[in-house]
Automatic annotation (TrEMBL):
Residues 100-173 form the Transcriptional repressor PaaX-like central Cas2-like domain. The chain crosses the membrane at residues 12-33. It comes from the Bacteria. GO terms for biological process: maintenance of CRISPR repeat elements. This is CRISPR-associated endonuclease Cas2. Keywords: Antiviral defense, Endonuclease, Hydrolase, Magnesium, Membrane, Metal-binding, Nuclease, Transmembrane, Transmembrane helix. One of its GO terms (molecular function) is RNA endonuclease activity.
Amino acid sequence: MTRAENINYPKIVLGVVVIAGIIAIGAIAPNAVQLLDLLPNQGNKKKSYINKIVIKKLIDKKLVKIITDEKGRKGIKLTKLGKEKLKEYKLTELTIKKPRRWDKKYRLIIFDIKEWKRDKRDKIRRWLEKLGFIRLQNSVWVYPYDCEEVIALLKANYQIGKEVLYIEADNIENDYWLKKSFDLI
């Protein structure tokens, strides 16, 4: 698979809509998205695909909508659902930077999310796992490096601010297995 085939076109188009605010409807016509010229290996067929198929799919999924301005010009605008999807794309890029040296502190994430918010609770668990946290108990996770900003983003995105606690701890009883799991020894 070439680099161009790995490109997430919906993500790019949503990002361009955000940057531009509103894209003129000409972007739907073949060969009209000049910004896509910056992407590698983009022939006319690929641009046409992006214009016709990707944007149509975004409209069908209600991620963008066609609007008309006061002069009768049509454009594309990001919907509320589109903004949420773009946030989701940004979350997939979340990483926690590991410092050269461990500061000998653990970061504990403890959450108590109600049963009726089970989907959010499950998403948080998946995110913590993806980011490299280790589960101590169902709702208690540990990580050895500072990650307060990432946790704040997750809390804000899923609107669970008061239900998640971020704690820094100097030690955890019988932590040899944790140090080994995090490759700290």
